[in-house]
Amino acid sequence: FVAGFGSLMQDVLWCFSQVKGTIDIGVTEADIISTVEFNHTGELLATGDKGGRVVIFQREQESKNQPHRRGEYNVYSTFQSHEPEFDYLKSLEIEEKINKIRWLPQQNAAYFLLSTNDKTVKLWKVSERDKRPEGYNLKDEDGRLRDPSMITMLRVPVLRPMDLMVEATPRRVFANAHTYHINSISVNSDYETYMSADDLRINLWNFEITNQSFNIVDIKPANMEELTEVITAAEFHPHHCNTFVYSSSKGTIRLCDMRTAALCDRHAKFFEEPEDPSNRSFFSEIISSISDVKFSHSGRYIMTRDYLTVKVWDLNMENRPIETYQVHDYLRSKLCSLYENDCIFDKFECVWNGSDSVIMTGSYNNFFRMFDRNTKRDVTLEASRENSKPRAILKPRKVCVGGKRRKDEISVDSLDFSKKILHTAWHPSENIIAVAATNNLYIFQDKVN
Amino acid sequence: QDTQEKEKTIPPERAEEAKLKAKYPNLGQKPGGSDFLRKRLQKGQKYFDSGDYNMAKAKVKNKQLPSAGPDKNLVTGDHIPTPQDLPQRKSSLVTSKLAG
Questions:
Q1: Structural domains in chain A (count)
Q2: Burial class of A331 by CB neighbour count within 10 A (0 to 12, 13 to 18, 19+)
Q3: pLDDT interval class at B75 (50, 70, 90)
Q4: What is the distance, to the nearest Å, from the Cα of residue B81 to the centroid of all Cα atoms in its chain?
Q5: Domain span including residue A176
Q6: A49 at the B interface (CB within 8 A)?
Q7: DSSP result, A357-389
Q8: I need a surface site. Which of A17, A20, A87, A284 has the fewest CB within 10 A?
Q9: Which of B82, B18, B98, B90 is nearest to A19 (CA)?
Q10: For residue B5, is pLDDT > 60?
Q11: Are the beta carbons of A258 and A267 closer than 8 angstroms?
Q12: What is the mean pLDDT of residues A308-329?
């Protein structure tokens, strides 16, 4: 449990570090980033996009000559993970969009990650090659076969250094296990299994076995007319390999223990905040739908994101969250138009910092919000090209809700709802964050003195 | 000033609900329930009726659009697609601009 790396909001000044992607007038849909994830050491940062591509960035070694410059992230590998498909039997178009990427902890020189679209999960191996064999007997350096009758001497091929090549190969394809659309994958702490969750079912896989998976949760009603809720996200506990949680479109979270039964339809714990009936409206259920659920690194808490708030729950208290943070409550008086333009269905993610003291989530207008759980202070920052001078300190932003607008504030009606920050990631141990703003990836770091 | 307004008027959510119902009086009885869930489950579903397609191709005049049938909530679109209308399957071999 590392203490003291800038966990207090007032000590942290966030600075621009890098931005990846192009400034296009019109954004190509394929370039829209759909997932961002650091690996367990923070050395690698992966992004997935709507075009089914994965780009992995690697942090460069910090140089003693430039101590004020923290290691920057440069492209390490990129590959096409998924392609568009059409299921002719079901008349179903399957998007290649990468919904989630999850890294496996590193166990040897190669890196492994899981990437998934709506239907298929793939295990990718990313490895380096910096040597190649030279001096074959039967073929020359270009690979052309030599005439055996011309060979008079035998030699032993030797390994010689070559320019570093990073290769990504699909090692496993886990297909045909989901009737509905996969929203989550989560690697288990046993490093042998992982789960994939769709709208109605959750399956448990062994990394070595692709033709079978165990169904561990099934909430499909016998009669689909009776369908009232769907699974929206799921995650394994960080330490207890028998425990996982899943969230629903009704704003509830269920914690399940795989030791109790093969099919975990009965939850071990059920987290739900009682609703104030006087506040109930047409929108209540929609805005209570949980778009993301994340265990804290400690495993003691879970964080959920619904349309307007982020909540922290103590695993030992099911009847209400211990903390609720307003992300953009001013949108409450805009729900009608947000429903009409479908923004009310946007799925925002949320993340913990390495010490679980600060949580972060995105909003509109390329704003993102951080909440310090200890000081109860919060800040709104913006990912924009205007603030992209190297090491420029990000200025806090403020939305004004009506009445007098101060000079630096932006009014609710001026917010750009097409600029949404749905995906963010926080380095596992340092104050480095990656923020996906449509087709651009911003990397921010705290100020180095 | 804000809290004063809240006490005087109805909660913003209810006001927004009233706005929505005024615009769409036939909005489903079940608030935010099965309709939007079913739409979510049907994402990606493409329907094709060869009869309709061939009739559209033959450019039959005064043709009525096919009725929705018992499943009113399913999204079928409001015209008969032809091969020319369909978006091209994207070329998937272009490198991401993030790697540029």
A1: 1
A2: buried
A3: very low
A4: 16
A5: 14-52+172-446
A6: yes
A7: SEEEEE-BTTEEEEEETTT--EEEEE--GGG-S
A8: A87
A9: B98
A10: no
A11: no
A12: 98
CA–CA gap between residue A349 and residue A448 (Å, rounded): 28
Chain B residue whose CA is closest to A27: B97
d(CA A425, CA A47): 10
Place of tokens 């492994």: A112
Q: How confident is the model at residue A193 (pLDDT cuts 50, 70, 90)?
A: very high
Q: Could you say which DSSP state residue A285 is in? A: H
Contact: B44, A286; criterion CB under 8 Å: no
pLDDT the model gives residue A404: 74
Tell me: pLDDT of B67 over 60.
Answer: no
Chain B residues close to A403, C-beta within 8 Å: 1
Does a structural domain hold residue A232? yes
Task: Give me chain A's average pLDDT, please.
Answer: 93
Phi-psi region of B62 (alpha: psi -120 to 50; beta: other; left: phi over 0): left
pLDDT at A225 over 90: no
Whether the ipTM is more than 0.95: the answer is no
Q: How confident is the model at residue A405 (pLDDT cuts 50, 70, 90)?
A: confident
How many Å is the maximal CA-CA distance in chain A? 93
d(CA A17, CA A442): 8
- Among A90, A94, A282, A342, the strongest candidate for a mutation testing the B interface, having the largest count of B CBs within 10 A, is A282
Cα–Cα distance, A426 to A409 (Å, whole number): 27
Tell which phi-psi region holds residue B20, choosing left (phi > 0), alpha (psi between -120 and 50) or beta: alpha
Residue whose structure tokens are 């540029």 = B100
Sheet containing A323-326, strands listed edge to edge, beginning at the edge strand earlier in sequence: A292-295, A301-305, A309-314, A323-326
User: Alpha carbon A248 to chain centroid distance?
Assistant: 18
Asked whether residue A316 is assigned to any structural domain, the reply reads: yes
3-class SS string, A90-120: CCEEECCCCCEEEECCCCCCCEEEEEECCCC
> Hey, are the CB atoms on A402 and B44 less than 8 Å from each other?
no
**Closest among A101, A116, A55 to A440, alpha carbons compared:** A55
Assigned token pair, A72:
């920057």
Picking from A12, A336, A297, A44, the residue whose alpha carbon sits closest to that of residue A168 is A44
Q: For residue A178, tell me if it sits in a domain.
A: yes
Do B92 and A181 lie within an 8 Å CB cutoff?
Answer: no
Please answer whether residues A410 and A416 qualify as being in contact, where contact means their C-beta atoms are separated by less than 8 angstroms: no
d(CA A109, CA A54): 20
Ranges of each domain in chain B: 10-44
User: Is the pLDDT reported for residue A249 higher than 80?
Assistant: yes
Instruction: Tell me the residues of chain A between 218 and 247 that have a Cβ less than 8 Å away from chain B.
Output: 224-225, 227-230
Residue in A170, A182, A169, A174 with CA at minimum distance from that of residue A210: A174
Residue to mutate among B30, B88, B97, with most A CBs inside 10 A, is B97
Cα separation, A356 vs A200, whole angstroms = 30
